[in-house]
Every structure is written in C-alpha cells, then in structure tokens.
Amino acid sequence: MVVMLVLVFVIAYAAIALEHPLKISKSASALFGAGLLWTIYAFSVGDPDRIGHELDETVTATARIIFFLLGAMTIVEVIDAHDGFAIIASRIRARRLTGLLWLISGGTFFLSAILDNLTTAIVMVSLMRKLLDRRDDRLLFASVIVVAANAGGAWSPMGDVTTTMLWIGGQVTSLGIIKALFLASVVNLLVPLVVLTFGLRGRSFTPSAVAEASAVAPIERNLMLGLGLAVLVLVPAFKQITHLPPFMGILFGLSILWLAGEILHKGKPQEARNKLTLAHALSRIDLSSLLFFVGILLAVATLEHAKILEALAGWLDRAIGRQDVIVLLLGLLSAIVDNVPLVAAAMGMYPLSQYPTDSFLWEFMAYCAGTGGSILILGSAAGVAAMGIEKIQFMWYMRKIASLAMLGYFAGAAVYVVQFRLLH
CA angle, corner 66, sides to 57 and 279, nearest 5? Predict the structure, then answer.
C-alpha cells in the first residue's frame, strides 16, 4: 500500500509542477490524485468506520481553509468592483523610478499582509501597466512586486495561503507570526531592493496613461474599501476574542459587507446594481484555485493517515539532523514546486504535541515557504499571475531577479534565526 500511495502522490505532484508544459490544469491533477489516493487507502485498510472517521477529520480541516479563502477572495472582488484599488493609484506622486520602486514595493509589502500576495500582485502589476510606458521597466517592477508580495504575505496570517494554513491549523498565532517574521520579511525585500536601486538612480518617468474616471461615486468607493479592509484586518482580533475559527470571522465580515452593499445600492436601477453586488463578485472568484487547495489537502491527508509523513520526518531528522537546514531546503524546493502541498505535508509530518504552537519549526517554515517561491517566477501564485499579465519570460527572471531574490531569502532566514536565538 505504501509504495502505491507514494507513487500515485509523486505522479500527481509531478503533473501539478508541470502544469504549463503538460497543459493540464493543476486543479484537475490534484483532485484526480486525491480521489485515487483515498480509493487505494480505503481498499488497503478495509475498515469503513475508520476511513469514515479519518475522512470526516480531513474534510473538516479542509473546509475551514476553503471557507476562509472563499470569504477573503469575495471581499477583495467586492472592493475591486467598486474601484476601491483605484484610490491607491491616485495617491502616487513619485516622478523618479527609484522613488516609484520604493513606493510600490512598500505598498505591495503591507497591502499583501492585509489582502493576500496573489491579489496584491495582480492589483499592483495591473497598476504598473497604467503608470509605466517602457516594457523593460514594467518587467522589472512586476518582478519586484512578486518579491514584495511574497515577503509581505509571509509575516501575516492572511498574507499567504501557507501561513493561513498554519494559522488555521493552530501551528502559529496571529500575533506570534507577526512578531517573529516581520523583521526577516523586511530584510528579504530590502536586499534586492537596495541592489536594484543603484541601477535606476537618476531616471525619471512619465505616467503612460491618465487614470480612467470611475463610474462609482467616491463616497461609495471609499466606504466599501474601508469596510472591506477593516473586515480583513479584524479577523485575527475576532478569533482572539471569540475563540471561534477564522472562517467564522471572515464569513461574518462578508455578511456585513454584503448588507452594506445591498443598502447602499438599493435605490439604483437593476442594471447598475448587478456589477456591484456580492453575487457578481462571487462569479469572478477563481474557483479552480479553490478546488486545487481541496485536492492537494485531501491528497496529503492520505499520506498523513497512512503514517508515511511521520516516517519521512523521522528519516529527515536522522539524515540531516538540523531542523533549520531541513526547513531551509523545503523553502528552496518551494521555488520549484507549489508551496501549498509542501506545507500541507510538513503539517502532517510534525505533530503539534512534539512541536507546539509558535515554535521555531512553524515560524521558520512560514517564512521559508512564503518567500522561497520568489526565487523563480513559477515558484509562487503571485509570480505566475505577474508572468501572465506582463508575459515575463522564465529565463529573463532567472537572469535578472533570481539571484537577488535568493540573497534576500538567505538574508531574511539568517535574521530570523539570530532573532530567535537572542529572544529564546
């Protein structure tokens, strides 16, 4: 059974990693792999009661993550439908590329902590298309946005899906992860940013296009942006006060935003209301990505229940010995393959009874998995999004950005390790 489960998982994993050359959706590969793995596991165990109990546990844990992501993605789409992100563009006053680079990088870093790195990358790269005329400049800025989005997402419980998984799973707390990784994430961004600044000194730019007028009234745009961001920011506080899981907080906040939108637009003609409703926002959500998370989490769960991940953790400890090196290597691996299954596998490999909440392992894993994907353009969802929008070539990113992103990765890792040893 063990050999079959590992073989099927490796094949499904390879299909996910080779999504682009194979031209097969990674969501389809993940769901097929999950279905096949559970089928093999069920026949091998031969105990319907045990399988039912384990599957119930897995579905509960998976649903918590999916409901949270569904709520967060919907809130972001509602803000975007009201042109809320246009407010960011209107605040840009820089006229030199170095100033713009620092402004956009800083904005991306903090915005991705509030929203998520994928959404922030899409918003900021799309913004650069309106501001920059030269394609070379746009490619450079889009690449820096990827690094900034991943760095900003790592230290926030809602900034990166892997950090969200660890937060919902109880491996980290919201305040703990912020305190532990903020400085390391800042260094991760600063290192490539400082190097790139020297190459852009003295260069100015002129916005390539004037921002289009919004059809949404300013008061409506500001209200929905403020309310939406407030909901996202207050979810950790809701969890801390009520002790309810984060998905309850995000869904409760979503209902408030929904009611506010219904009241705000109730006097408008149906045609004008349609594009501003939450129902329309739901239709724009990338459901394929949600199904990918469902598939990969269900697939990894079979390896956990079959004790394969526990055995793998023991082997790594014996072969390498140093926990920091193991996690560092997992982060580098996340530049090649998706970080979601890596973290999901690690959560099954290392039990909370042995590695408690906010321990070195979980915090360092959140940093490495969140920022390691910046080393290659295909290593993160933010990178894939930027690649699609600006048509960034894989080899161009390798030549121009990969080495800088790796320097930032190791510099931030060193900062976290030193900080942890000083404080513990």
Answer: 140
Tokens representing 47 are 């105990």
Could you list the residue range(s) of the whole structural domain that residue 115 is in? 53-297+306-423
Can you list the positions of beta strands (E) in 168-231? none
Question: Is residue 25 domain-resident?
Answer: no
Asked if 265 and 273 count as a contact pair (C-beta separation under 8 A), the reply is yes
CB 145 within 8 Å of CB 154 = no
Q: What is the DSSP string of 351-385?
A: -TTTS-TT-HHHHHHHHHHHHGGGGSTTSSHHHHH
Number of domains observed in the structure of the chain = 1
pLDDT digits (tens, 9 = 90+) for 351-383: 888 899 999 999 999 999 899 989 988 778 788
Residue 118 carries which side chain, given as an amino acid letter?
L
39 in a structural domain: no
Task: List beta partners, residue 96.
Answer: 204
- Asked if residue 214 belongs to a domain, the reply is yes
Burial class of 95 by CB neighbour count within 10 A (0 to 12, 13 to 18, 19+): exposed
pLDDT digits 0-9 by tens, 222-280:
888 889 888 887 887 888 788 888 889 989 999 999 999 888 888 788 777 878 888 88
Tell me if 18 is assigned to some domain. no
